[in-house]
């Protein structure tokens, strides 16, 4: 059931007390002291190692737990570095500038946040990845929001909400496939069943974003400044759309994300060598250092100066620390002890669903890993749902409603650190406005298992 075998079995009370202390410490550093999440996560690792040694767990076992935890995120780490390359190559090839420019022609101030949410949702379903959606169309919308004097916090909240809607509902999404597979539910039955809670969350979120959107039109001169700066950059050409087209084609043919991003980045780089004013040396250096814009309009420089492997190093280091921290929570027995305690005491349908949601949220908060929130919670609760005669698709839906969408709301999580980095908006800044992500677990708890007990379990 658990990826790391615990070397100690603490009591539930002991596990909860230590858990609460660690959460309080991490929250104090991030919220009160406003430090980087790296610092409290590192301190939490020190505390867990001290706790493990006090409980006579060898340092070798503790170290292996950290390494195993970090190893589980290596696929994401390689992907993050490649997305850094994608962003810089899409800028020098003109793909992101072209997306921003076309957006100025179709989006005004009216219903801006709602339109951002809707379009990002559509792109998210098409790509099946919240990270790719945020790093491409999300970056473009941040640029439009800046030109429209819109709130960066609400704009980022709309982007995150739409990207996670797509990640949750797309048949191409890793998390959607994982949730259906782990509890043995047909993929499209799983997606269809999620509509019961996802559609209401989408509609409510759209209405809220429409209500919050700026009233009236934005001064034409404000938009013209950005458009003139884009023209002066000499980055936009008809070929700028080809890297996006390659990514779409790869998605249609279900090409692995790493290969799809690599192909799109490589094509974008080669096109930049033909169309841009940069030397080949400068072009290849953007893969590592990112692109530095040099126009006469400083806001555009700030928008287009980004990307590269170096831009992802802070994200990568935090992911390694957070997953190592998660590994220690398992090897010390703290997480298994709490999960087993929940498992033995659940009988009522609503209590089971609430507990499932809280467990998925808890794994996201304390381990910071989206896949583990689905995997661990799904494996833990499968037997409980069968015993309560609840269909497995109720479990798979709850895993997505409270597991998939919560990860970007945790400052030290895999999605949280990545999205905050590419959008340049801190997690705690956009969190109150990621309405779809906040509403999904609430609606799944309210909806509960109503009308599901009559079906035979496992369907």
Report on the structure:
The chain is mostly helical and 459 residues long. The protein has 2 domains: 12-72 and 315-447, no CATH class; 75-312, no CATH class. 73% of the residues lie in helices and 0% in strands. The chain has 23 helices and no strands. Helix 10 (187-212) packs across helix 23 and helix 12 (242-252) runs antiparallel to helix 13 (257-275). The protein is globular.
Descriptive tags:
459 residues; mainly alpha; globular; disordered C terminus
Task: Summarize the model shown.
With about 450 residues, this protein is mostly helical. Helix content is about 75%, strand content about 0%. Helix 5 crosses helix 7, helix 9 packs parallel to helix 19 (about 370-385) and helix 9 (about 175-180) runs antiparallel to helix 20.
Structural class: mainly alpha
Provide the domain count: 2
H/E series: HHHHHHHHHHHHHHHHHHHHHHH
Which bin fits the share of residues in helices? over 70%
List the helices and strands and how they pair.
Blueprint: H1 12-32, H2 38-54, H3 59-71, H4 74-92, H5 95-106, H6 112-127, H7 130-147, H8 152-169, H9 174-182, H10 187-212, H11 220-233, H12 242-252, H13 257-275, H14 280-289, H15 298-304, H16 313-331, H17 334-344, H18 349-367, H19 370-387, H20 392-404, H21 414-423, H22 427-430, H23 435-447
Helix pairs in contact: 1-2, 1-17, 2-16, 3-16, 4-7, 4-13, 4-14, 4-16, 5-7, 6-7, 6-8, 6-10, 7-8, 7-21, 8-10, 9-19, 9-20, 10-20, 10-23, 12-13, 16-21, 18-19, 18-20, 19-20, 20-23
